[in-house]
Amino acid sequence: MSTLPTTTQGLAADPGALNALRYGAGRDGQGGKTALKEAAKQFESLFMRELIKSMRDATQKSGLLEGQGSDLGTDLLDQQLAVQLSGLPGGLSSAIERQLGRQMKANGGDGAAVDGAQDAAEGQSFKPLDRSSLKALMRYAPSATPSATAGAAATSPSQRQAGFVSRHSDAAEAVARESGIPASYMIGQAGHETGWGKSEIRNADGSPSYNLFGIKATPAWKGKVAEVTTTEYVNGVPRKTTARFRAYDSYADSFRDYARLITRSPRYDKAMDQIGSVHGFATSLQRAGYATDPQYAAKLSRAINTTLNLQRAQS
């Protein structure tokens, strides 16, 4: 019988829980597999806690009801939230567990992986899971892609955002070098437009349109088209309507077409003039009529700032 603790009931990065995992790894009748799984959950909770903290730090505070007491309460809530978001099906813990398993075999002992998790928690060296390894692991983070729709329902919002940013970074960086639009701006806008991949525009047969930016198909558009129901704001009131959107052969094509629209259309000249400011860029897009949502600039600014924080965490 395993003597391992139920770590999901503790705090994120609980040293006592990690010590118990180390002790239990040598007593686990399954050759340390249970300890390995729990260690992966603990390590994921560490990552999730830092991610939540960076996102909260980027949120503007009101100044009301703030103080040491409220900060402590918020920190404790963030720790518990990090634990609750860890160990979900298809999450980072699965990839971390595989990585720890390989390290365990390389070191020739069942407890080696758990030792590595505790070393990481204590700030010591653990080469297989350094920042570069975490960046590679983030590519395994699930998002609501056409091939993973079923798993997306069990994915937390922060995991979905991280996976989305990681998955589209290469295409966005390539287009950024060509257009001068920061990759973070494009990924953030694509994340906002698609619900971080959860609500991408699809063709009538359910296949992906690869349209990440909600660009509509005007009469001048000669490419493929996806016709879907969308929400438009008329005098500030949301209304459902059917619209025709551009469809592409790949996500890279979507980034390139978006960049052409923003850099070549005179209506978005002011947005390009504000490329050094997240808020200025988002506000200029709204004023130019990119979207009818009266809160579009504020929502887009939050999405871009979220992307910037995730990129820092993954770099």
Can you characterise this structure?
Helix content is 55%, strand content 7%. The chain is mainly α and 315 residues long. It folds into 2 domains: 7-140, no CATH class; 149-314, Lysozyme. β1 (224-234) and β2 form a beta hairpin. The longest helix is centred in the first third of the chain and has 25 residues, at 33-57. It is globular, with a radius of gyration of 22 Å. The two termini are 41 Å apart.
* Overall average residue pLDDT: 75
Q: How does the helix and strand content classify structurally?
A: mainly alpha
Secondary structure tally, helices: 13
Strand proportion, as a percent range, falls in 5-15%
CATH architectural type of the largest domain:
Orthogonal Bundle
Cα shape? globular
Distance between the termini: 41 Å
The value of Rg in angstroms is 22 Å
Topology:
Layout: H1 15-25, H2 33-57, H3 68-85, H4 92-107, H5 112-121, H6 131-137, H7 149-152, H8 157-179, H9 183-194, E1 224-234, E2 237-247, H10 251-264, H11 269-273, H12 278-287, H13 296-314
Antiparallel strand pairs: 1-2
Helix pairs in contact: 1-2, 1-5, 2-3, 2-4, 2-5, 2-13, 4-5, 8-9, 8-10, 8-13, 9-13, 12-13
